[in-house]
Amino acid sequence: MTDLPLILTVFVACAVEAVEALTIVLAVGLTRQWRSTFQGMAAALVVLAVIVAVLGPTITLLPLTALRLVVGALLAIFGLQWLRKAILRASGYKALHDEASAYLREVAAAKAAPVSSRRGVTDWYAFTLSFKGVLLEGLEVVFIVITFGANQHNIGAAVIGAAAAVVVVTVTGIMVRAPLSRVPENALKFAVGIMLTSFGTFWGAEGAGVSWPGNDAALLVLVPVVTVVSLGYTAWLRRSAREASGSGGPVTAMPPAPATESEEVTGR
Amino acid sequence: MMRALKSFGAFWYDFVIGDDWQVAAIVVVALAVTALLTHVAGVNAWWLLPLCAFAALAWSLYCATARKS
Fold first, then answer.
1. Are the beta carbons of A229 and B57 separated by less than 8 Å?
2. Which residues of B touch A226 (CB under 8 A)?
3. Which end of chain B is more exposed for a tag (fewer CB within 10 A), N or C?
4. Cβ pair B57:A84 closer than 8 A
5. Per-residue burial over B36-50, b = 16 or more CB atoms within 10 Å of its CB, e = otherwise
6. B53:A197 CB<8 A
7. What is the ipTM for the molecules in this complex?
8. Is B18 helix (H, G, I), strand (E, B) or coil?
9. Contact (CB, 8 A) for A138 and A50
10. Can you list the alpha helix ranges (DSSP code H) found in A113-257?
11. Rounded to whole angstroms, how far apart are CA atoms A192 and B50?
12. Nearest C-alpha of chain B: how many angstroms from A5?
């Protein structure tokens, strides 16, 4: 397999997470102060880089079969959770993630919090919020970088995809100085979910001992099949939502709502 | 100390398992059965994991939407 699918998958996954991290950083930076916000962001990026630098080479030392089994299982579980959420959002059963309303919530919280300096940081609230936002959104990217990179024995290519996404999102954010609410986040999450599920299923089954018909070329069939099945599920749920709303069931277009506890933790 | 451990565990549970533990359980069981079929019965069961993944997704979506209907 060439490096392009690896770089593209990591790029898209990282872009989604970077957009969400940017919302938090912008809200804190514009409302509080940039110096402490940048310090928090830089500290989180250092922690994420250390995790990749330590775990990346370590995980590649594992036997390939064991690596593929464990990483494949984790990626498949991860991918199915992304797909589940994206399908529920696309079919109207779950509110779409709205960066504009998330930004307003962060701004309101940042305005209400008192200013206190600690450990050489002028605004501890701005530092910790920025640190936590970037770290939590970045952990998922680190997971994808390490698992995809290790399986392909090319962590460098995965890091290039992730770094490119961070640069693109950061430069765009600096230019518009506002949350990137026009980014089609759900469509991107849908695409990432398809890629994670496909690669996870492929590697997991290989790790369990199967030989795929056509070897790596099986992925060229698996990805479209996962896409078609996911789109089919979305159409099925949309139809049942329409039928249910006709008989007093759930509304088809949910208004944006605050993130759930799980979303706050994982960023998914 | 216990609270910190609990939060740490809850974080990783949410991070890896997410909203529906049944999806994770189905994937793990499917992988175990695939390994058994391949290594013990000599069946090249490449089709089993994709089928189980699609079934897990359908079941999870059904459960999530049935609660809201």
1. yes
2. 50, 53
3. N
4. yes
5. ebbeeeeebbbebbb
6. yes
7. 0.90
8. coil
9. no
10. 124-151, 155-176, 185-207, 218-246
11. 17
12. 20
